[in-house]
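FIELD: query
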Amino acid sequence: MTALQNHRRQSRARQSHPPEGQFLQVAGRRIHAVEMGQPAGSAPDVVLIHGSNGSTRDMSFRLAPALADRYRVLMLDRPGLGYSDPIAKTPASLRNQASYLCTAAQMIGVERPIVLGQSYGGGVALAWALQHPDSLSALVSVSGVSHPWDGSLDLFYRLTASWPGQYLLVPMITAFVPDQTIRRSLVDVFAPQPVPEGYVDHLGIGLTLRSGSLRANARQLAQLFEDIKRQSQHYGRITAPAELIHGAADTTVGLKIHAEKLAADLPNANLTVLPGVGHMPHHVATDEVVGAVDRAAIRAGLM
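FIELD: result
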């Protein structure tokens, strides 16, 4: 019964929200890439990296269209999420994800882009800048995770990242958890702002409820602390212009724990704090995020 219900829900998700872009083969794995905006070579390149349990659809709702008039925008599903395959054999660390995405971008002629990461994606963007410093022009972190924090991983993710959870609990969740549960969780993510009208339908709740996505997301979150702890010791090596934009009311990725420390660690960082804004400024303060991208482009000599 569980397997049948999973098959039905995942089939509906694929039919209602199919891939919007092309597939690139990186080390034998498919990376889903969506382009928007100006033709290649006619404008600066911007790569957008989504957060935890997201997809390119999170970036294509408001931010990518707002950038499309003067940038070539590339959105990439992180490995294991959206329509990208999980990384085979090696761990889906920040470092490995960054390498896959960097290679995918280069395969379609994206050279020295501005790399923007939101939330978990901010950690991937930082890993990109550390591992492939000559492959980007500037860095933009939007509510990005960057430094170790106090406390342990949420019980839900500890369970779903475990072996029994991966193969017993996750299929039960994806088969029977109501869509309304995901809708309520989005209220917490966007707080204190409301979830924008039309966002849930655009995102596609069914895509986030697929077993493969939940498994990959849980594994990535389970090792995030160690990844961040390791890479945060090397941020002083990042010399690219960096624009950090963070909501003062963000309770998911705290301003003081992450953005303020990152601003102190990066030699060329500029921090913009948005009063009263929560964890999703690319949707609720889109103009300010676009402004951060523009500043990064100017500082990098792209505009």
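FIELD: remark
The radius of gyration is 18 Å.
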